Here is the input.
Amino acid sequence: MFTKEWLDVDVAVKDGHVVGLGRYDGGERLDVSGAYLVPGFIDAHMHIESSKLMVDEFARAVLAHGTTAVVADPHEIANVLGTDGIHWLLDCCTDLPLDVFVMASSCVPASQFESPRRPFTPGDIESLLRRRRTIGVAEMMNFPGVIAGRPSELAKLSTGLTDHVDGHAPGVRGPALNAYIAAGIRSDHEATTFEEALEKRRLGMWVLLREASIARNLRDLLPLVRQYGTDCCAFCTDDREPDFIVEQGHINQMVRVAVGDGISPEDAVVMATINPATYHRLWRLGAIAPGYQADILVLDDLKSFRPRRVLKRGAPPHFVDLDVPEWVRQTVTVAPVDATSFRIAVGPKRIRVMRVIPAQLITGVEVVEPTVRDGCVTADPGRDLVKIAVIERHHASGRIGLGFATNVGLKRGAFASTVAHDAHNIVALGVDDDDMAACAMRLAVIGGGIVIADGGHVVEELPLPVAGLMSDRPLADVYERLKSMERRLQEMGVTMESPFMTLSFLALSVIPELKITDRGLVDVNRFELVPLGIE
Here is the structure.
């Protein structure tokens, strides 16, 4: 790994660690003559909850593709269950064959416009940083607050317990980027263009090249590696759904794509192993060398990167099954809603509309004349105007944010989810108010998940009873149910790729340009709530 050479040697392993490279006799031998050995892949930044799988099932899923360690930001669980949820998640990971390292969630809520179960304080972050597998502070999403020098945000970066802080700075450039980095933030995974990534790298940031379910930025950023090498570059998946994992893989998919796009296999493997380990100070991971943990992949070729064997600490992974306590399952508390909850009285003659952008987390904004029926502003599938709602689900406050979206394609019915980044209230898209109400009330019954309603009743659903975020079912079951539901939405006119992941990010108030929370529409560029109507 350190010289990017292939060596024809034996690898000696003792007590789960590599103890030497050379020629060895005796002991238990595993003959992999002619194969390529590389270190286990490391995901530099991700959210386990986005897989919709419990952590034990997630471990089974990604280890098969050669991912042996992940650095996770559990801010989904944090928004739903507070610090208790993260401590529970850390406890769950103790006996997993997958190494799960955690960054202490820094933005709960992601902004003042969101409503989690309860906000995190610097004291909450400090309590998490004292856990053994918590290695730093997670992505600082409130970049406007940091750039403005807001004391509440800077306090999260100066606990005295760590100086290792991940960033989140979509589109931040120039003087604002300098200020953000000067606050002590050392990485970013939100760059979507070569120019943006290059500016960040020039200023000393690690660029985490992302290939998520809807934010597929890898190919756009690979010119950075071709022109400037692999220094300060690492791979991450951020948010990857079950279908992506089943059909294409995990970090190995990124290595495969990079090599197919002209990056040398050696450079691609470096960005999947020693580089993320170096950035995150995981000094015993990321290489096959004396003293390093014996996480080793056996590869038949340097094109597919599908491991023939995966060794974790020198042995085949040993999987465990986890139980989920009841307090982790009972998380959806919604005030009663019906069709009238989604009515919007006629107001100004022009309204703001969120424009969904394919395969991106960012959205646009359009200004249109509303469609009016019976004194109310309504969805209009003929104009591709669908209603969007976010319903507070942690305290049954009855608070609902209402707006409109376009470039969705939905012709009838509605669909909704309790996976709604980052506060994870209920987010719904629909052209019929009765269907939107049916979705919301069904989610309360099943403890969270994803539902589709048509004709006033629910027609398909995927329960996600673990914090309203994750299933307690095997990967194959979750995959098949999601594929069936995506086919259903296509029949109902939806044109969005990864519709459920896309839906979840329409509620994230720190990704430009126009988003929505239970408190209303958010102009992310101005970082303020704005009314639906424009006078």
About this structure: The CA atoms of residues 173 and 196 lie 7 Å apart.
